[in-house]
Amino acid sequence: MIFHNKLIKWYLQNKRDLPWRKTADPYQIWLSEIMLQQTRVVQGMPYFFAFTRDFPTVFELANASEEQVLKLWQGLGYYSRARNLHNTAKYIAEDLNGIFPQTYKELLRLKGVGEYTAAAIASFSYNEAVPVVDGNVFRVLSRYFDIESDIAQPATKKEFAELAYELMPKDDPATFNQAIMEFGALQCVPKNPDCSVCVFNDSCLALQKKKVDMLPVKSKKTKVTNRYFNYLVLEDALGNSLLQKRTAKGIWHNLYEFPLLETTEIANFDFVSHEIKNNIFPHYTIISVEEYSGATVIHKLSHQHLHIQFWKIKITDVIENGISYEALKTFPVPIAIHNFIEML
């Protein structure tokens, strides 16, 4: 049986019931694809429902404030995706009258839309015969055809895209693309796939050559940087605190946080207390400084491990524009700070 027939037959019998598979609406497909970049389906699903509830069309998303979008995105990570999503929604609503581009090449011009996302929208919404190539596709094809090309190299993506295009039935690219991604997500998984029940176990070259756990080949390892964040949680005479916006480029851009003291290693009480009293808040009369015991966390991002400590600073003053505890909950903040606020 030809590859795509067997694959699609498996898909129709085993596919998950996902809401974005029940529509050809490019807005909903675009939302789902942006959310699922570097995010598991089970984690992304509640966010998809929340966004389609609060922003049922691209116009509502475009008219929302950035803070509304970031707050709804809170906890999903990679916040540049949310900012790009918002900017692109404005462009589509205002410049394109709410009508999405209808070809792969035109979709690629949208901010935050790369080759994979453009291919997904083009095939799922407009049935354009363009292959999607993600980690699942790399894994399925590299194993089935025993391809040892390094998937960390840009040229390899082109190689796999050309192969996927050859295999794709040109009259139904959407189902093929969904099928090969689902097969990689459910059957041909990264570690310990159950090849005994695989529909391709009679023709998979990696299985025949006992190379399943060796493919795909990926050379580059992500270098992880350790950073040390000390969040300074002020409490004034009224019980109010202070947040500030992260305006610098980098992680958590435009999210809110407590005043931050970043150090080169885990900081001790004496150092933090000295910095607070002499350099950071010399204009306040400080009653006490103490570390929140039990609040220290290590927050792992793709390229960084953040060692986060929280310090309580009580002052006799009244903070100008101080923020109450209840109001703290309304600001879009990184999930580590959200969790801390919830336990206060």
From TrEMBL:
It is an enzyme of class 3 (hydrolase). Binds 1 [4Fe-4S] cluster. Residues 35-186 form the HhH-GPD domain. It holds the Pfam family HhH-GPD. InterPro entries: A/G_AdeGlyc_MutY (IPR005760), DNA_glycosylase (IPR011257), HhH-GPD_domain (IPR003265), HhH_base_excis_C (IPR023170), HhH_motif (IPR000445), MIG/MutY (IPR044298), MutY_C (IPR029119), NUDIX_hydrolase-like_dom_sf (IPR015797). It comes from the Bacteria. Its cofactor is [4Fe-4S] cluster. Its EC number is 3.2.2.31. Belongs to the Nth/MutY family. PANTHER family: ADENINE DNA GLYCOSYLASE. This is Adenine DNA glycosylase.
